[in-house]
Amino acid sequence: MSENFAETALRLVSVARGLHARGWLLGTSGNLSAVLDREPLRLAITPSGADKGELETSQILFIDELCKYIDEPRVTLSNDRPVPGKPSDESPLHVAVVKARGAGAVIHTHSVWATILSDVYANEGGVEIEGYEMLKGLDGVTTHLHREWVPIIENSQDMPTLASTLNEVLVKYPSAHAFLLRRHGLYTWGRDLKEAKRHVEILEFLLEAEGRIS
Amino acid sequence: MSENFAETALRLVSVARGLHARGWLLGTSGNLSAVLDREPLRLAITPSGADKGELETSQILFIDELCKYIDEPRVTLSNDRPVPGKPSDESPLHVAVVKARGAGAVIHTHSVWATILSDVYANEGGVEIEGYEMLKGLDGVTTHLHREWVPIIENSQDMPTLASTLNEVLVKYPSAHAFLLRRHGLYTWGRDLKEAKRHVEILEFLLEAEGRIS
Amino acid sequence: MSENFAETALRLVSVARGLHARGWLLGTSGNLSAVLDREPLRLAITPSGADKGELETSQILFIDELCKYIDEPRVTLSNDRPVPGKPSDESPLHVAVVKARGAGAVIHTHSVWATILSDVYANEGGVEIEGYEMLKGLDGVTTHLHREWVPIIENSQDMPTLASTLNEVLVKYPSAHAFLLRRHGLYTWGRDLKEAKRHVEILEFLLEAEGRIS
Amino acid sequence: MSENFAETALRLVSVARGLHARGWLLGTSGNLSAVLDREPLRLAITPSGADKGELETSQILFIDELCKYIDEPRVTLSNDRPVPGKPSDESPLHVAVVKARGAGAVIHTHSVWATILSDVYANEGGVEIEGYEMLKGLDGVTTHLHREWVPIIENSQDMPTLASTLNEVLVKYPSAHAFLLRRHGLYTWGRDLKEAKRHVEILEFLLEAEGRIS
């Protein structure tokens, strides 16, 4: 698993730095994960409180399906010594998405437009996005006539409750590619980190477009 | 043709990465092409589904005037082995522009402002842009008093029909430098990739200016 | 102190260049400082009138608690010869924050949104920011339900008076993480430069979100 | 003069690329110049039609006070052979500013906000900017209470007439640091390129702030 981890860590860092540059992961906000193994579940995840613009592979951590930190030797491409850290507080949401959707990677961003729309549309329970060619970049979508419903979940600091609500939402909207936490940010995922990153770019674009016309 | 291809591929990659950085090609959206030969027509084009921010010369493909992939050896400057791929689904629109306008390069971007205006002005059939000095950067325009009409074409997944509509639009507006696909994005072109890139920058600028005052 | 200074100067330069790239320190505006010693107080600070996008470690200066320039040899990592300069005119505000809050670093940015909101909310005496997950990135904040009050101080060129008003404000709002100078910009701080930078990113994000919805 | 030219050309290229990255010189718009000699007047200036994002020192040209291209050997730092080119069409405006203000460098940008405000305030003849700390970055300004009047000149393709109108405006507003051409862009200047760049950043910031609140 170590070599696999080294490459995955490098890709997590590369994507994180790029999204920070766009202003979608400011102030240590947001987090990213990628599946290393399914049985038993092993996730590589960004640590709590890290500046994503200066993230290093040595900061990426292992967790299991209970979100517990796994203290196995981590080999990084740069041969830097692993930095001790705490997995992201929102690890349970990553694990929930991975298990419910079979996702290979999960990305959570905090953009200004996602934050605004998650509040504006909170009473409607979600943001409806329809009729954009850009939607075709979402996995399985073949026409701009597609209607994407991005559910909004009320924000909470009670992580077990939030994970439980999320599980219900993922069941209720089986074809949703993403969800918003109110006044918090966007979660999306993909079969791998590349697809998850593509989904972030598409959804952030669409939320900005919706935000500017609303 | 191989050496010509290698340089063209490098320039396509360079322009694509730059436009992705500006947020105009997010989420694998958009595509770029450049003419390699006229008789018979040979186009270098970006593949379907590529992340333009990480595009490599090895991903650039050849197509003919029927948009068929040409399986000739491709030589890349980096000596990377060509990556198998599928030409962009919108290749017929690139070929249509090249044939109708004699263009040497075609660029299709997806920006937030182009997307918004393509919907706001859809019922009027196009966006009128007039009186800006920036217009003088469009090929053949010598005064800011120029009136540019950017036709809007209803979006469709039926590519032959869309190409046919586009041909009519190109005939109807022989001096247009660009067109919009509704809620989809901008197409523009030039004698070469340099001019096509210049036209992208000018039109995206003008659409943002129009969008912010409308 | 010299080695400590060299590293601190390098970090000040790195943060300054990054914030300039985001457009938050345009036109030589803004300034940054970091504590080198507490007893007696020694601050490394950016010089007056420097282009933060081209800042060099050789331009960073020492000052004492009276904001007087200290003419001790400065060792820079690059071994460039120290460039003579004048400490930022706003040094008294940096010293005031360091003494009142025990801060290890202070950053002052000029962003468009901070400038706008500092005027819009001037009559209310401050900007109230509440209910955003992003608030949790502020030191000591553990829930998005936190209510942050960012006091607004009337701008002035009379630096002793401004420092005196600032001292009153810091006493009156002991839990504030930042303040705005009206039509001028944002001041925030942290235990170290890393935390101060995190606070800048968080507050600039929140002010932009508030600005776009107001 | 050759060595002086080489360094000046390098600085012009560096500033031009940076301003292009910010989106203020898109599509070959805008131009920059710096004085090499006063008696007789010699200006280094960007060529007509150049992509500022890919500008090379070999493209920078000499002109005299009649804006005539000077065919002297140009030495570039990179030892690239000088590229033949045509001086910017707006060279007469650069020369007018240099002579009227004694400026050492002139920068002309095309930003979205400057373009919008130059039209919105055209009937008032200029944009009044007052009360911002950022104003203190303009040469000679010592307080945010400063009132800057940025005159707006009607755009024209008749360059001699435009230069003549400009001369009247420069006489009428002897303390103006900049002017706008309607629906065209911003001109500002400084004792040297560094100051001119600082003025660009300050004025673009202020115009954006004014544009967002108006």
Series of secondary-structure elements of chain A, N-terminal to C-terminal: HEEEHEHEEHEEH
Number of helical regions of chain A: 5
In spatial order, strands of the major sheet of chain A run 3-2-1-4-8-7-6-5
Which structural class do you get from the secondary structure elements of chain A?
alpha+beta
In helices, the fraction of residues of chain A equals 25-40%
Q: What's the quaternary structure here? A: homotetramer
Span between N and C termini of chain A?
47 Å
Outline of chain A, from the CA principal axes?
A: globular
Radius of gyration computed on alpha carbons of chain A:
16 Å
Largest sheet of chain A: 8 strands, mixed
Largest interface: A-B, 22 and 20 residues
Average of per-residue pLDDT values of chain A = 94
Strand content of chain A: 15-25%
Number of strands of chain A: 8
Which residues of chain A form runs of ≥5 with pLDDT under 50?
none
Give structural attributes.
alpha+beta; 8 strands; 214 residues; homotetramer; 5 helices
Structure description:
Four copies of one chain form a homotetramer. Chain A is an alpha+beta fold. Chain A has five helices and eight strands, in the order H-E-E-E-H-E-H-E-E-H-E-E-H. An eight-stranded mixed β-sheet of chain A has the order 3-2-1-4-8-7-6-5, sandwiched between helices. In chain A, strand 6, helix 4 and strand 7 form a beta-alpha-beta unit. The radius of gyration of chain A is 16 Å and the shape is globular. The model of chain A has no long low-confidence stretch (mean pLDDT 94). Chains A and B meet through helix 5 of A and helix 3 of B.
